[in-house]
Design brief:
mainly alpha; elongated; Tetracycline Repressor, domain 2
Length: 199
């Protein structure tokens, strides 16, 4: 039952937002009483934390699966982007923005975990790209890994990029192109253009 609650809540939160969804709506969507949900989660904040942890774990597993395929680094980045978009359903409700605004402690903890785990993935991607001649050999891996992470968080800032003007899919695609054009060799740009044609 706990997994059903997490899955149902995740879908509602992604479509309607963390703030908008009530415990009544979650119960109604599941066809159970609120009492049933409270057996597993003492309040909505606890449920929000469990859902964000659950989503984080699913996305981390997805990233691991993609990295094990040993794709070239540019293809890998686009594959990760597609997988994340599948799970986040184009972020119509901007879950990160709502999380930051209404559940700042949960947001802060999630951001720290994301940074710690993704830094290793990004650095490995950059080093492999340099080794394969797709990325310039004079890039500062440590700096680019950090700026890449903060750029990914930055494009989800609703005040700068309102979803009424930008779809999350387009934002991520434009950001990946911006990032990759800045570090790619001529060979890397060819691979980038190949990936962009497949969008």
């Amino acid at each position: 039952m706990k997994d059903k609650i997490l899955d149902s809540s995740k879908n509602l939160f992604l479509n309607l937002g963390f703030k908008s969804v009530t415990m009544d709506e979650i119960a109604s969507n599941l066809g159970v009483s609120k009492k049933t949900i409270y057996k597993f989660f003492k309040n909505k904040t606890e449920l929000v934390k469990a859902v964000t942890d659950h989503m984080f774990d699913i996305i981390c597993e997805g990233i691991d699966v993609i990295c094990q395929k040993k794709l070239n680094p540019i293809e890998e980045i686009f594959s990760i982007k597609r997988m994340v978009m599948q799970h986040l359903k184009d972020e119509k409700s901007s879950p990160q923005y709502q999380l930051q605004k209404y559940y700042p402690k949960i947001y802060g903890s999630l951001k720290t975990k994301q940074f710690q785990i993704l830094q290793e993935t990004i650095k490995e991607n950059l080093k492999t790209g340099v080794h394969l001649g797709l990325f310039r050999d004079n890039i500062d891996v440590e700096f680019i890994a950090r700026i890449y992470f903060y750029g990914m968080i930055g494009i989800k800032d609703q005040e700068v990029f309102p979803l009424s003007n930008f779809s999350m899919n387009d934002l991520m695609l434009n950001y990946l192109e911006y990032h990759l054009r800045g570090i790619s060799t001529e060979q890397g740009v060819k691979e980038l253009n190949k990936q962009l044609k497949q969008k």
